[in-house]
Design brief:
InterPro entries: Homeodomain-like_sf (IPR009057), HTH_CenpB_DNA-bd_dom (IPR006600), HTH_Psq (IPR007889). The protein is an all-alpha fold. The protein contains 6 helices and no strands. Helix 1 runs antiparallel to helix 2.
């Protein structure tokens, strides 16, 4: 009869508190992942999965408050009668980013179409509009 397999790993011997301490140490960069898993007795795969899950994706270009302010500017332009095409919207966002000194946008470079598409999905009330004849008295 073959001998039974006995797990020699550290599965189940760590607590949630140990995991939080290890995550905090890795995020503050006071410990590397390998050192943290040895110190807190946590499995390597579990710790690396938690670290990667906590920092997924790219940092957003604008914060939520800045996006609300930009949306209000766009709505104000629409109410005045200024037609907002895709090109005008992208240049409006570029000038807005230049005004608040966002470093990730190069001077004179247009904002990407993908970013604009995502912005318009997040803010349904700020939309593109075609130019229409506007009575000068209304303007």
């Amino acid at each position: 009869m073959a001998p039974r397999y006995k797990c020699r790993g550290i599965r189940g011997k760590w607590t949630e508190e140990d995991m939080l301490k290890a995550l905090a140490a890795v995020k503050r960069r006071t410990m590397k992942i390998y050192t943290a898993l040895k110190h807190f007795n946590i499995p390597r795969r579990t710790l690396t999965r938690k670290v990667k899950k906590s920092c997924l994706g790219r940092k957003p270009l604008l914060s939520t408050e800045q996006e609300k302010e930009l949306k209000n500017r766009i709505i104000r332009l629409c109410n005045v009668g200024y037609p907002l095409t895709t090109r005008v919207l992208r240049s409006c966002v570029r000038t807005f980013c230049d005004l608040i000194n966002i470093a990730s946008v190069n001077k004179g470079q247009m904002i990407g179409r993908d970013w604009l598409r995502g912005f318009l999905k997040r803010h349904k009330d700020a939309s593109r509009s075609k130019a229409q004849n506007l009575n000068p008295a209304r303007a």
